[in-house]
Amino acid sequence: MNETTDSDRRFPPALADLAGTDIDHADGTGIDFEPYDAFAPAEETTDWLRNWTGDEGLDGAAYRVFGQDGTGGLAALWCVRPGRPLEEQPVVFLGSEGAAGVVAGGLSDFLWLLAAGVGPMEAVEYGATTGRPDPALVRLAERHATTPRRPAGEIVAAARAEFPGYADDIAALCR
């Protein structure tokens, strides 16, 4: 059950700060991620999820899309933890070519993942667990993270262990 309502679309301060931070793609060796300055509109999220899966009966109420990669794959908070704030919802990635996965157990861990030089697309599509740390993203994580700094591989592994069926569940929705 999703207790996070569609009306709860306030952009967390950490995401607002992230939106103002340049993320270095480094000619393909950095992070391929473009943060938004607000959540994508609910209707747009629903349309995208329906197009992505081919299931016209779905809605995107459980997702708060906050960024994308260069191909149009989306990063979102997945509102699956009843009664918990947006910052404590897992971060997922739905790639433009069908890849899907949980990349971090919450926004705090996602910030540490970025600080380590690993973006959501890299974590899901390439299994990347190490990257080139970015000093600006390290400072951002230090300002906003409420979880301890951990290696990117541990962050991704913990998220996948907590939600092991996410990718399969999303694949099962595809028509």
In short:
This protein has 175 residues and is of the alpha+beta class.
Which regions have little confidence, pLDDT < 50, spanning 5+ residues?
Answer: 1-7
Using only CA atoms, what is the Rg? 15 Å
Number of domains: 1
Q: Helical content, roughly?
A: 25-40%
Structural class, from secondary structure content? alpha+beta
Assess the beta-strand content as a share of residues. Answer: 5-15%
**What string, H for helix and E for strand, traces the elements in order?**
HEHEEEEHHHHH
| Silhouette | globular
Commentary on this structure:
Strands 1-2-3-4-5 form a five-stranded antiparallel β-sheet. The radius of gyration is 15 Å and the shape is globular. It has one domain. Helix content is 36%, strand content 13%. The protein is α+β, with helices and mostly antiparallel strands. The longest helix is centred in the first third of the chain and has 12 residues, at 42-53. Helix 1 (13-19) runs antiparallel to helix 5 (135-144) and helix 3 (107-115) packs antiparallel against helix 5. It is built from seven helices and five strands; from the N terminus they run αβαββββααααα.
Features:
175 residues; alpha+beta; five-stranded antiparallel beta sheet; 7 helices; globular; disordered N terminus
Give me the secondary-structure topology.
Layout: H1 13-19, E1 34-35, H2 42-53, E2 63-68, E3 74-78, E4 91-94, E5 100-104, H3 107-115, H4 120-125, H5 135-144, H6 152-162, H7 166-173
Antiparallel strand pairs: 1-2, 2-3, 3-4, 4-5
Helix pairs in contact: 1-5, 3-5
